[in-house]
Amino acid sequence: MSDGGETKTQTPQSDEAPKKSEPDLVPETEPAAESSGGVDDAPQAVQIVSVGNESDAYAFTFHEERLNSVLQKVPPGWKVSVVSVVGAFRTGKSFLLSWFLRYLSYHSDSRGKVGADKGKDGEEKKWYDHFHTLGNDGFDWRGGAERNTTGIWIWSHPSFLRRSNPQTGEDENVAVVLVDTQGMFDHETTMALTASIFGLSTLLSSYQIYNVDKRIQEDNLQQLALFSEYGRMALQDGKPPELKGPAAKKRDSLSAQPKPFQRIDFLVRDWQNFEDDEDLDAMEAEMDEYLQKVIAERDAADLKETRDQISACFEKVSNYHFTHPGFAVTKKKYTGDVGVIEPTFLMLLDRYCQRVFNRDNLVPKAVHGREITAAELGTYIKNYALMFEGGARFPEASTMLSATATANNTNATNITIGKYKEDMDKIAGTKATSYLKPGELEQLHRQVVEECIEMFDSMANFGDQRKILMARENAVRKINTDFEMYSKLNEGRNPLHGMEIYIVSTTIAVLAFVLRWIADSTCSSWSQTCRAGSDLFSHIYAVVILFMVIVGSTKAKELRDSVKRMKAAFDAVVGGGSAKKKE
Question: Which of 3, 171, 193, 484 has the greatest number of CB atoms lying within 10 Å of its CB?
Fold first, then answer.
């Protein structure tokens, strides 16, 4: 087992044609977002954070365009579940993620129920039996003792699954993104950089898998609690929780605080202590008992504090155990032959994949309790990555709060403006057909703005109030600019719009004709002045009529539209009069 690195290969495919069977996958007819820019479109692991540059060996470099190329593949408005794996180097993180890819790839093809199908011999055949070799076409992995992955990597093509929304009880689509991280404690990475990698991964994840070797040791818990403290401080505007005083008071204080992170799953590798390694249900019961013992109350103050901190910072803490996959897998020359992997390991792997991607466990990324979309996730990751740019130093809690609040304000502004445009497009957009009086349009505009600002205030609810107010003002300013556009579009549908040129011209022509008739009727034929006036008036209405003919011929479409508007105006007047009479 090993960590992963760069690869630019195709999506893992099974060696045999699988049977179609997995209901939780999004149907093929589901709309997909277009991908663009950043990386080759072939499925591959994409590095979004690299470590080290010419001036600083520990600095983070965030590759925004690569991240965007992945998130742009998620249809607009869809939520995103981020499954990441962290842990010590050479403990099989990338090996595990490559199996995740094959699980998702197989069920994406099969579109049916998770479970077994029949092989040629009539025996039940699991999804992993369709692969003769793991290969190296997923997250890059290799046997041996040297580290493989550096920085943070993300799979270029999200998987689209369905989950049951616990709040509404309805099914909804969710995109799943897999994340691989640099291994910790590799004799080359500083503790500060290790904490930064762990921290950044935890901040962007909705389901964090903490890969540990053989057992959950006290230092694993302490490392997790250390970063959790920073997360809590960020959530509390940089103010650390009060840890003094009676233990009961401290517990109450901790439990009253909102939990900054969602789920942490300790994945114990190479577990050797199962009573019966053929009974999966019994093995999972033993796992639960083990976790309860690990996180149970302790008398020693430091041990108790560590467990309280973890419990208070994560919405859910769980664990799972894998047996050893077989010594052939750990050799440097191992190339991915599935046949040499221990059957018990594969059975546990199957159960674990079902657990991670189960429709009831699939939780989208949430910030301050609100589940976010792919576009919002990109904003958060960008701000978090920039916060960790100096990888040799872990950012202060106030910096973490500022990064989270800035991203939250940006997302609140974008969503508010998007809602305004969506609502106003229905009222006065390009596809609207009815003309609204300016006062009526203004009233509807104010109603939509009120709803949008209420949405903004519900989202932008933490961080520097001055910055929140600035973001709110920016949103209102952009909304007002958009309203000017909608007003112009609405005015373009005014039945009398553009009629001025025809009304004025017709009036002049009629007036000139009447004056010529008066001149011809009242003046004597011998009067030079009368004849000159008559000729002038005739020339005027002739020129005006010629002008209207020319305008009509060059703007035939506009003229037809004007006639339609006149008819619409007439119908509106007549219809309004009829309505009043009926009343």
Answer: 3
H helix intervals, 91-169: 93-110
Average pLDDT, the chain: 76
Greater confidence (405 vs 103) lies with 103
- Rounded-to-integer distance, Cα 530 and Cα 522, Å: 9
Q: What angle do CA 376, 381, 385 make, to 5 degrees?
A: 155
Rg over alpha carbons for the chain, rounded to the nearest Å, is: 35
One-letter amino acid identity for 525? S
What's the chain's length in residues? 583
With contact defined as beta carbons under 8 Å apart, do 154 and 45 qualify?
yes
The Cα 102–Cα 137 span in angstroms is: 10
Amino acid in position 208 = Q
Note the pLDDT tens digit of each residue in 22-61.
Answer: 435 554 434 444 444 444 578 888 999 888 777 777 777 8
Give the pTM: 0.69
Cβ proximity of 373 and 77 under 8 Å: yes
Query: 569 — phi, psi (to 5°)?
Result: -65, -40
- Among the listed residues 89, 110, 194, 181, the one whose alpha carbon sits nearest the alpha carbon of residue 139: 181
pLDDT at 185: 55
> What ranges in 429-464 are assigned the alpha helix state H?
438-459
CA distance 385 to 402: 13
What distances in angstroms separate CA 183 from CA 211, 320, 515, one per listed residue?
Answer: 10, 20, 96
Is 10 strand, coil or helix?
A: coil
Q: Three-state SS for 331? A: coil
Residues 174, 14: Cα–Cα separation, whole Å: 24
The C-alpha atoms of residue 320 and residue 318 are separated, in whole angstroms, by 7
Please, which pLDDT band fits residue 123 given cuts at 50, 70 and 90?
low
Question: Two tokens at 133?
Answer: 């070799």
Q: Are 321 and 348 in contact (CB under 8 A)?
A: yes
Strand blocks (E) in 298-407 = 314-321, 366-367, 370-371
Please, what is the angle between helix 438-459 and helix 465-492, to 10°? 150
CB 58 within 8 A of CB 89: no
Would strands 117-118 and 124-125 be described as parallel, antiparallel, or unpaired? Answer: antiparallel
Q: Which residue has 């204080």 as its token pair?
A: 253
Place of tokens 């909102």: 258
Tens-place pLDDT, residues 405-437: 888 889 899 999 999 999 999 888 888 877 888
Q: Which two three-digit tokens encode residue 275?
A: 């009573």
